[in-house]
Design goal:
Elements: E1 3-7, H1 11-22, E2 27-31, H2 34-43, E3 48-52, H3 60-70, E4 76-81, H4 85-93, E5 98-102, H5 106-134, E6 138-139, E7 142-143, H6 147-160, E8 166-169, H7 176-186, E9 194-198, H8 204-212, E10 213-214, E11 226-227, H9 229-232, E12 237-241, H10 248-260, E13 262-264, E14 271-273, E15 277-282, H11 286-291, H12 297-303, E16 306-309, H13 319-331, E17 341-342, H14 344-352, H15 358-372, E18 377-378, H16 396-399, H17 406-424, H18 429-436, H19 440-449
Parallel strand pairs: 1-2, 1-3, 3-4, 4-5, 8-15, 8-16, 9-12, 12-15, 17-18
Antiparallel strand pairs: 6-7, 10-11, 13-14
Helix pairs in contact: 2-3, 5-13, 6-7, 13-15, 17-18, 18-19
The chain binds adenosine-5'-triphosphate and magnesium ion.
Amino acid sequence: METILIVDDEKNYLVVLEALLGAEGYEIVTAIDARAALATVREADLDLVITDMKMPGMSGMDLLEACKKIKPDLPVIMMTAYGTIELAVEAMKKHAYDYIQKPFENEQLKLTIKKALENYRLVKQNRLLTEALSDRFRYGNLIGKSKPMLEVYDLVDKVSRSKASVLITGPSGTGKELIAKAIHYQGERKDRPFISINCGALTETLLESELFGHEKGAFTGAVAMKKGRFELADEGTLFLDEVGDMPPSLQVKLLRVLQEMAFERVGGTRTIRVDVRVLSASNRNTKEDVQNGVFREDLYYRLNVIHIDVPSLQERPDDIPLLVRHFIQKFHAGDTDDAIQLSPEAWKALYAYPWPGNVRELENVIERAVVLHSGAQITVDDLPEELIGAETQFDVERFIPPDIPLQRALEEIEERLVRRALVRNANVQAHAARSLGITKSLIQHKMRKYNIAV
Ligand SMILES: Nc1ncnc2c1ncn2[C@@H]1O[C@H](COP(=O)(O)OP(=O)(O)OP(=O)(O)O)[C@@H](O)[C@H]1O
Ligand SMILES: [Mg+2]
């Protein structure tokens, strides 16, 4: 329930307003002077202050200024008597949310209050997300607080303390490279190089010389000795991106290097020894490639001592608001005070879209929207066409493992829906419950059942 503090030195007004607004479902607190009001502002969890302008002692204007010092975001609506419009203008300059003239129309007052509360809810949601970004829900540069991402953090944390090879798989744009970097920079090798190479982007001969280096004159064009990535990564980490695309002949050579940590440069005879931690990534189904004989089984087991499988963005909608906030901050140079908001329709479109390009696609969409938007809001007009009108398609095959009992599957879906409703409603349980069409006590029951804390 939202709580409104009403301040007026005329007791009659307090009584009338308390009855009027109490009937609207708000919790009403009153104060007969500004000093008492200020104490309440300090102590209570208020959502709105409505204050008379002219009061003996401390005036409404002074109260406004004091409130803004204590709780800058808390909206304050001023009540002014007829003929003191200049005061109202001054109050607006001092960041009053709005003003109303006495005597007021009930409907107009209610509407102003509703707008102020809605606006405050958005501001709070925004602040929650910004705070969340700064600590709990990030790991290195990784953003996300969904269950699957928390599991990824957990694995990253464990493997960063070891030297074990890690294979990171997942669809394109899900953050595999970012995870590889997180493993490196959380671990003991963080002060040594992180070297990466895209095994899918080079021809076989070029890839070989890039990996192992070459001696001068090894082939036409080898005018000088060149160290390979394995040498450059000595005592650090080598990240083999798109490892599934590596040609078979090189797979053999790579296997030997991984086993012995020794190799020769192309065209050379001297054995070079290194100490390299190998991380690799693939958006192919490497296991299937092994079964089809495209990828060597022995190499697969070498690379895949630990496996991290990154879920698609569609499988973790809880991460969308945090990522959006993060990318807005990244692309918007302004400070957080005038942070860009998204219209409710824009949020809806982001949730409904299936994100085939995953986080990379979301990042591009937000970068574009930050450039295009005008005013303080990103609206659907700032989003690419394909996002508008996308219907959510719930793909059971993808989200629910086969052979799981029906009851368990339904609970799985229910938990996701409850979590999503909370995220979308800034953790306001009453609103989340309403969006799901259930009572507040039922949503609380389900939160306990699924261990959801807010
Ligand atoms: N969890 C995340 N938090 C913040 N940014 C992310 C996250 N995941 C991905 N990104 C961003 O999305 C973009 C794509 O990430 P990355 O290059 O790591 O994906 P990838 O899985 O390696 O993709 P590909 O398979 O196409 O190579 C990058 O700009 C990255 O910073
Ligand atoms: Mg990548």
